[in-house]
Each structure stands twice: as C-alpha cells, then as structure tokens.
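--- STAGE predict ---
source: upstream dedup step, 1 unique chain passed
mode: sequence only
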Amino acid sequence: MKKENKKVWYSNPDILTTIILITAIVIIVISQAIAVNSNLSASAMIRNLFNHNLTYIAGIIYFTLLKTRVGRKNFSLINVIYILLYIMITVASIFTIFQSFGLSAIIGLVLNVIILCYLVYTFLPETRLWKDFKLNKLPLTEIKNDWFFYVVCVMSVALLLVSLIDVANFSGVMITIFDTFYTILFGRYIFLYKEYVDGGEKKKVKSNG
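--- STAGE serialize ---
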C-alpha cells in the first residue's frame, strides 16, 4: 500500500502542480511579509513583488492555467509563452551578477540556464517551432531526461547551501528552503512530462512495428 501511494504521488500531475502552486504562494507571502516589516512604500513593495518573485508569479499563472480546460487545450502555446518568459528571467539573472557578484548569483544563473534548456528539451518538440527552427539538431537531444533532473536537484541544493550562509534571519531561511523545494518540484514536473511523452513515443513505435 505504501508503494502504491508513493507511486501515485510521483506520477499524479494534479497533486504535483497543486503542491507547486502552494509553494509559490507561500514564497510570495513570506517575501511580501518581509517587505511590510521593512516599512517599504507601496510602490517599492510592488517593485519587490515583480522583481524578486517573477518566477513564482509566472509559475502560479502557468500551473493555474493548466488546471483549466482552456489551459489544457492550449498546452503547447502556454509552454511556448512560459519558455519566452523564462528567457527573460534568465536574462534578469545575468544582470543580477553585475549588481551583486557572488557565488550564489553565479549558481543561480547556471541553474536558470539549465532549467531553460530543460524546458526547451521537453516541451518544444511538441510544437512546430522544433521542426521549423531545426532545433532537433541541438545537442540537448543527446542528454537523458534523468540527467537533466539530477543536475537541477544538485544545483538547487548547492544554491541552497551557499544562500544559507548569506541569510541573516528566519524569514530569509524559510524563503531559501521553499525556493529550493519549488525548483526541485518544478524540475520533477518537467521530468514527468518528458517521461510521459517518451512513453507515448515508445508505444507508437511498438504499434507501428
């Protein structure tokens, strides 16, 4: 019975996306609570919300849409939009290095690049862009799905350890931990979808054979 429950937890996308949504909301709430305690102005709080929580706001919108009929029907389009948005997030992490150069900023940039590649590797093959731009020639196709996921996990934990050194309060520690949890869960979501697609392709090959 325990094995069955564990299998359901890992393979049920609805449960996983719900946990990701809750985690993103918790991070934003804690972040804004810190801003309130810092006596920031309303405009500064709004800037803080979008500057530091863009990843989680995008995640909330993305996974909320996937729980609707419209979102599921336009799944590929939503993925393309999310990838474009994640390109912006990755570019923003480059500027972060110039603003506050440090090991955590470098690891954060590398992690964003890896996740961006993972998104392209997993979701774009389901769209016309993959063939139109001949993206199938990218070396990404040579990397195994579990390798991508393990790298995301390792880099997330590394970022957690480095970030905890710079954190000076309990709220910051909580945000850092939830951030790591969110990233690993998001990586798991991508991993499961790739497994689902690859499983479908294998079935097609067997049926055609």
